[in-house]
User: Which sequence fits this backbone?
C-alpha cells in the first residue's frame, strides 16, 4: 500500500451525524463547521469529506481507537475537534495520575481530571482510566513515606476508592497497576513493593474490584509488546494471579515503539495473553522516528502502525488501540527520547500522516484519497538487501547496573529451513537467558540457532530473538555472522 496522500485538515471533514451534533454543542466546533459549510470546496476536498474518520470506522467494527488527552490543550479548537472526531476513547495523559489527583494526603484535586471526563461525555467517548498504583508521578508523601504495611494499604485503599468511586459508571476500564516489573524482568523497587512485597499487585486489584465492581481492571507496561523476558515475566505473573482468583481482567501493552524495530511476534504475544482469558489493549501506542522525518521514514512508520493495529484487531481478545496523543505537536516523545519524534499518526499541523492512512485501512477504510504523483522529496539511500543466506542485526533495548537486554533480527537472503547467528563479545558480556532462539556460549563466543517455530523463513522474511545478558560495565554491539543451518 502506498501511503503518500494529499493534505487535508482533520476534523473539518463531515463527521458522522451524531458526532457532528455533539460537536455543535461543544461550542468550539461551531465556528469552524459553519465556515466550512459556507465555503466552496474543491473536488478533492469534497471526496475527502466523504471519507470516514478513524472513529467512525472503529465504531463500525466495534473496536476501540483511542487517544491520550491533556486538559490544558482542550481550549484549542483544532485539538478538541480532532480528539472528538477521530477517536472513540480518551485517556488522561497525566491528569488522573496520583500526583495530580492527591498531591497531599487527603487533598484531592479533580479540576483537570473532571475536565477530560466531561469532554469524553460530551463527545460520547469511552474512557480508559490511567492510572492508580504506579511508582512514577507519585507524590513524595507516598513515594518517600515510611508506612507500615497496614498504613500503606489504607493509603492505597483510600486513593483507589476515592478515585474510582468518583468516576463510577463513567470510567469502565482502569490501569490499576502500572509498570510493576522492570526491564530486567524482576519486580521493580517502589514504596509498594518495599512495603508489601509482590502482594501489592493482588491487593491493588482486590481494592479496585471493591471500589467499582463493574470496571474492567488492567495491568499495564511497556516493552511487553513482543515475546521477551519481561513479557514472559508478565505471563507468569498474570497466570498466577488468575489462578489465585485475583480480579484482573486485562493487560495493557503500552506500545512505545521505535519505527523499523518492531518485535516480529506481537500478534503471537497478544494471543497468548488473550488465551489466558484476558482482554488485551494496546494502551499507549506511539512509534518514534529518528529526526528529521523523511517521507521514507514516514512510510516505514505507517507499515509499523499497520503491523501493530493488525496484530491487535486479528485477535478477538484484543479490544483496541489507544495512541499516546492527538498530534505530534504535543507528543511526549521529543522530551523523553533525545533526537526522536514524529511518533503519532497525526502531524503537528493536524494533517494525517501515512500512519493515519495505514490505521484507516486496517480499520476497513479506503486508506485515503488517491495518491498524488510521487513527490520530489529526497529519500534515504536504499538499504542493502541481505547478501548470502541471511543477515542479522543487533540492538540493545535496555541496560541496567549489571545486566542488559538485546534483540537480534535475522533476515533471510534466501529460503531457509534453519539459521545460526554467531558473535564474540569483546567487553566481557555474557548471555544469561534467551527466548526465540537456543543460545550457547563458549567463553566469549556465542552461538544462537533457531527454535522450532522460527527456523523456516522465506527470502526477505525476518524473525527476532532476544536475551538478557550480564556485563561488567561495557555493553558493546558485536559483529554478527548469520548462516543457514
Ligand atoms: C508520560 C506522559 O506522556 C508525559 O507527559 C509525562 O511527562 C510522563 O509520563 N508510560 C505511562 C505513561 O504509563 O503514563 C507515560 O506518560 C508514558 C510511559
Assistant:
Amino acid at each position: 500500500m502506498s501511503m503518500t496522500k494529499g493534505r487535508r485538515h482533520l476534523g473539518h471533514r463531515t463527521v458522522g451525524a451524531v458526532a457532528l451534533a455533539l460537536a455543535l454543542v461543544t461550542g468550539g466546533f461551531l465556528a469552524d463547521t459553519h465556515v466550512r459549510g459556507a465555503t466552496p470546496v474543491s473536488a478533492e476536498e469534497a471526496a475527502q469529506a466523504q471519507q470516514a474518520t478513524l472513529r467512525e470506522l472503529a465504531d463500525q467494527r466495534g473496536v476501540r481507537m483511542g487517544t491520550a488527552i491533556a486538559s490544558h490543550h482542550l481550549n484549542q479548537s483544532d485539538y478538541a475537534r480532532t480528539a472528538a472526531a477521530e477517536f472513540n476513547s480518551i485517556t488522561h495523559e497525566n491528569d488522573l495520575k496520583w500526583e495530580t489527583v492527591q498531591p497531599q494526603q487527603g487533598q484531592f484535586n479533580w479540576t483537570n481530571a473532571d475536565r477530560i471526563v466531561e469532554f469524553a461525555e460530551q463527545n460520547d467517548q469511552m474512557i480508559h482510566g490511567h492510572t492508580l498504583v504506579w511508582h512514577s508521578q507519585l507524590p513524595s508523601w507516598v513515594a518517600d513515606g515510611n508506612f507500615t504495611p497496614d498504613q500503606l494499604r489504607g493509603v492505597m485503599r483510600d486513593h483507589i476508592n476515592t478515585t474510582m468511586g468518583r468516576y463510577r459508571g463513567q470510567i469502565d476500564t482502569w490501569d490499576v497497576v502500572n509498570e510493576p516489573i522492570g526491564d530486567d524482568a524482576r519486580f521493580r523497587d517502589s514504596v509498594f513493593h518495599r512495603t508489601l512485597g509482590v502482594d501489592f499487585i493482588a491487593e491493588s486489584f482486590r481494592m479496585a474490584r471493591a471500589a467499582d465492581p463493574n470496571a474492567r481492571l488492567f495491568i499495564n507496561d511497556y516493552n511487553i509488546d513482543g515475546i521477551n523476558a519481561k513479557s514472559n515475566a508478565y505471563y507468569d505473573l498474570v497466570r498466577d494471579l488468575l489462578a489465585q482468583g485475583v480480579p484482573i481482567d486485562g493487560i495493557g501493552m503500552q506500545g512505545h515503539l521505535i519505527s523499523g524495530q518492531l518485535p516480529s511476534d506481537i500478534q503471537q504475544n497478544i494471543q497468548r495473553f488473550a488465551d489466558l482469558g484476558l482482554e488485551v489493549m494496546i494502551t499507549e501506542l506511539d512509534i518514534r522516528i529518528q529526526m528529521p522525518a523523511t517521507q521514507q521514514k514516514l512510510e516505514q512508520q505507517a507499515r509499523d502502525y499497520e503491523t501493530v493495529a493488525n496484530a491487535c484487531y486479528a485477535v478477538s481478545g484484543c479490544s483496541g488501540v489507544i495512541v499516546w496523543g492527538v498530534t505530534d505537536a504535543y507528543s511526549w516523545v521529543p522530551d523523553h527520547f533525545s533526537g526522536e519524534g514524529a511518533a503519532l499518526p497525526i502531524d503537528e499541523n493536524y494533517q494525517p500522516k501515512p500512519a493515519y492512512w495505514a490505521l484507516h485501512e486496517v480499520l476497513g477504510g479506503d486508506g485515503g484519497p488517491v495518491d498524488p504523483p510521487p513527490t520530489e522529496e529526497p529519500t534515504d539511500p536504499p538499504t542493502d538487501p541481505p547478501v548470502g543466506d541471511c543477515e542479522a542485526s543487533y540492538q540493545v533495548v535496555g541496560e541496567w547496573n549489571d545486566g542488559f537486554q538485546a534483540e537480534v533480527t535475522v533476515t533471510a537472503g534466501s529460503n531457509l529451513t534453519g539459521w545460526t547467528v554467531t558473535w564474540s563479545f569483546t567487553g566481557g558480556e555474557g548471555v544469561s537467558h534467551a527466548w526465540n532462539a537456543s543460545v550457547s556460549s563458549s567463553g566469549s563466543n556465542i552461538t544462537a540457532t533457531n527454535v522450532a517455530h522460527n527456523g523456516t523463513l522465506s527470502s526477505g522474511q525476518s524473525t527476532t530473538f532476544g536475551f538478557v545478558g550480564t556485563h561488567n560495565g561495557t555493553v558493546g554491539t558485536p559483529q554478527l555472522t548469520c548462516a543457514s543451518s
Observations:
- The pocket of XIL is lined by residues 93-94, 178, 222, 254, 284, 332 (CB under 6 Å).
- The chain has two domains: 19-362, 390-484.
- The domain at 19-362 is CATH 3.20.20.80 (TIM Barrel).
